[in-house]
Amino acid sequence: MKALSDLNAGEKGKVKKIDAEGELKQRLFSLGLRKGSLLEVKAMSMAKSTMEIEVGTTLLALRFEEAKRIGIETL
Amino acid sequence: MNELIIALVGQPNVGKSMLINSIADARLKVGNFSGVTVEKAEVNFSAQGHSIKIVDLPGTYSLNDYTQDERVTKDFLQNEHYDLIINVVDATNLERNLYLTTQLLELGKKMIVALNMMDEAHKEGQCIDHEQLSSILGVPCVKVSAATKRGIGKLLNRAIDVSLFPLEKSKLIYSDVVEEEIGKLASFLDRKHYASRLSSREIALRLLQEDTATYRKMHEEPIWVELSSFLKEALEHLYVHYETKDVAEIFAEERAAFAKGAVVETLSCKKCTSQTLTQKIDAVLIHPVYGIPIFFFLMWSLFQLTFTLGSIPMDWIDAFFVALGNYAKTVFGEGELGSIIADGAISGVGAVVMFLPNIVILFLGIALLETTGYMARVAFLLDGFFHRFGLHGKSFIPLVTGFGCSVPAYMSARTLKNDKDRLITLFIIGFMSCGAKLPVYVLFAGAFFGQEHAGNALFAIYLAGAFIGLLAAKFLKRFVFKGADEPFVMEMPKYRLPSLKLIWHTVVSKAIMYLQKAGTFILAASLLIWFASNYPKYPDLEASFDQKIEQASDEALKVEYENEKSKVLLEKSFLGKIGKSTDWLFTPLGFDWKMTVALESGLAAKEVVVSTLGVLYALGSGVDEGNESLIAELQKQIPLASAVSFMIFVMFYLPCLAASIVFTKESGGYKYLAYLFVFTTIIAWVLAFIGYRVTLLFS
Q: So what's the ipTM on this one?
């Protein structure tokens, strides 16, 4: 299984696992990122520190450290 | 008729504040990024013979305790009295918005769902069957558009209707597994005839959701002994079924499934072209290479504009107040009355009003940044950079707000979840020079760097302030507020063209506030400064000078004596004594006692720095120079190195009284204010000293 942080801009995936504690997990849930959600990586910032992803109809910004904790099945 | 209290709840960026604006024509600030409404705002008005109070709660993605403003919303909804919830929903992003709606339904209150931004949804080709949605949710759904004001009247009518009828229970139904466990617990409570404000179902649900407050309450009840074993069993069942022991996750999945189901049944997409425009703009604005230069260019343009465009009406206003002051002297005479009006009130207030154009341009720029959705992109771009200095990408929002005013900036730091991140951000907000410091810079930059370089000087000042702020953040993170980092997860809202009316409202209300401050607080401060610089009187001294002047043979000598007279009298006044007794602190920085006094009075409000200078240098100038402007006066009386060190000191020292009070509240104690005072004063003094010495070397 890949981590979200391994994906490049333009790649799509399906969330398999979220390795986060209570509050962060809740926040991801309420923003629509949970097991089974489909997502697409839209953009990366210069030093590969943050990435922009699209989940459903929402655009989200994530830090790479958080993206490492999200397990992805590439599509 | 009783007052009808409506709680306005919704996720960030769904147009809540704009909706309130449309409903009540109120002047609330609206921003297209999370954290604009940080404190609940209230609006009162009457419609159809009812007096209505709408409480605008901070935007929240869910009713958890993630950030402080989410807590404000949750606490209000659970503990305060209100009659009705209006849940504002972004029709273009229905599924995610309904997630919050499901949580609101669980509160068991009267509710209406306002499907906002219907116009935009139509443009994107989305059709929402709002009647079907109403029957799924069990609460009325009304289509509205805050931007075009459609459906607003209908929404209000429905709200009043709903409030008049008894509560109908919502139809939020969970999956069979969860419903079964709720049923078991509820029937146990019923069998025990457990009486509570809440229904048995609600208590059962809250227990399953591990709601701390409910547990605390039930724990003290006699039935807890039996209840706990039922509860344990119920939770075990859920754990097995969902393959996780995280109750929050179980219910999140339940809600998401419900929201998804509701969307599937109500939304039909003719042509789904959503977000293409936003993505096209993003391709440019958050480009990995060009993104940051574009951002800096935009900021640079803003400061250039602030100075160059602002300086045109500034000259007119300045000329107007100088003329007014001279006119006042001809009407009221050269005596005490003329002096208090011309030298006290008019020059003090005039010095502040002069900067209104600059303030308006700066606030216009910040309002545009906020409402278009660009601010979130900048947080995205800068997080990597900020993170290295121990800050969070989201710190950017309070920091940029700090360029406008520190008070809302301190409040918007609440969007930061982690206490340490928040404290670091709070400590350096003051280094982002606020709008009230702008007059000081404009005045000095104009006087000492000339018109052509003043805009660049201004930009450099703001940049240098921000840079030192970052270094200070690094220092604080490293040595004072150590700890784990907050995760960076943030929504990137769609780009939206801000409504002109809204921008107009924001800017006008800022301008009015500024003028009100000039007319009240600044006026009072100017009069006080005038008094303190004119008293006590020394009749003997004055008489001896007058004698000298009369006996002087030629005009030049007369003028010299006149100047010396006002100088000596000023130095012997109350203000002169205060300044002289403390100026040993500032002599190493090259300040004279007038600058010292101006700095000290700036602790009350930064505008007072300029008005104090205005009063002091108007008084100190000789009679025949009375109609020269403050800029010329400063050029004549202050050396360049002292001016540089003065500007540096103003950049970094303690924010105004109002901001300090808010800082104390947000940071959690006077202890932190004391730290802030020491921290900022040391930095200001040391940097001003360096600036002074370096300028002396090169000039």
A: 0.90
